[in-house]
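User: two proteins, same treatment. go.

Assistant:
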Amino acid sequence: MTALRDEAPPPRAPNECILQIFNDFSSHYDAKMRENLSYQAPERLQELIRAEIGEAAGLEILDIGCGTGLAGVGLKERAACLVGVDLSPEMIEVAQERDIYDQLEIAEITEWLDQTEGQFDLIVACDCLVYFGDLEPVTAGAARRLKPGGCFAFTTERGEKFPFHLSDSGRYTHHPDHVREVAASAGLVVARLEEGFLRTERGVEVTGLLALLKKAGD
């Protein structure tokens, strides 16, 4: 209703909203996204990562908002250790069945980033930041968990309104300048910021932002 009234949006979707969506969605998530919506976000993110770090492997990788593990499948070959975190127990259950993660956690991702002591070479957020308006809390949390020289790669939907906008789909769109703004605030360098096709929505192509932020090395 907030989106339809074009009211000022909250900084993120409530946990209860996300849990309700994916409680019903988890059992057929992969089929609907791939077959009905031509979902390509994991592949676009893999291309972005490859363009920056080549075929680097043996990495400590964190997949936040991992969902059913669609992005994790492509990350596994790079990982010495692959950790997945998601708010939805039902989505985590599907991810567990893939048998690609060394560790899976049910948690809200900003809280998990604040509480963990883990350090990672690569943190990935594929299609989960559409439920955040203000990207600062996630970006700041990721920056603290990156090793020197580490990368935070993510997708979101591109929007024309700065800094972000809650669309009538219930997802947020983000202006590229907001990505630059939160990267600078977190002390990260924008190594890559590109646009690309993510999926369709009501028969229309959804243009995404593909971002890779980098932490300075020693």
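Protein 2:
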Amino acid sequence: MEIRTFQSADEVAKEAAVYIADRIRENIEKKGHFTLAISGGRTPWEMIKELATEDLPWEKVFLFQVDERMAPDAHEDRNLTQLFKSISGTALVTRLNIFPMKANTDDPEDACEDYSETIHRITKNGKFDLIHLGIGIDGHTASLIPGDPVLDVEDQSVTVTGNPYQGRHRMTLTYPIINQAEKILWIITGEEKAEMLDRMLQADPSIPAGKVSQAHAIVLTEQSVAKSINI
């Protein structure tokens, strides 16, 4: 796993945007389109703002969600709400192909199946070009939550957590589809994440993030985080 460190969270966001932009250009030149799944978080929303300033063929980019809280449309808890705030007023609003998780539904299982079918239809093979992930202070990533039945799902690409987490059930991509991505981009900022980053790098299976494949992964983090765990 490659690790790159930067002075601040803002710098991490900027460099993450550059990294994604470069992957978009490479993939569009090679095969004509780019598939991306993103997680939520303060630094990722800054990343999206930076990415929106890049001159790219956005019509050929297909954006999916890694996870989403089961909440009403436009609710502040929704990652989609924060995503649209980040790209408001940019070309991405009208040019980017966005595929939201249907997280306001009476039939979440059907919504998961529909989302999975859409992923496979757009990617052709169920393999994203890039998936962006973060990590929580409890070691969760996406909405793969410690102790939740979602961790054991092997026959679905998208599912719903078995228990509420921080007050809400969540839709999430599962290990099978995450682990076959061409690239996995970890964005980890904040010194409180240092312990879990260290355990993730050691592929500690006792935390959800530790079970994500490291074969094609890159970590962008702050120098202060890396220094605290001697990397």
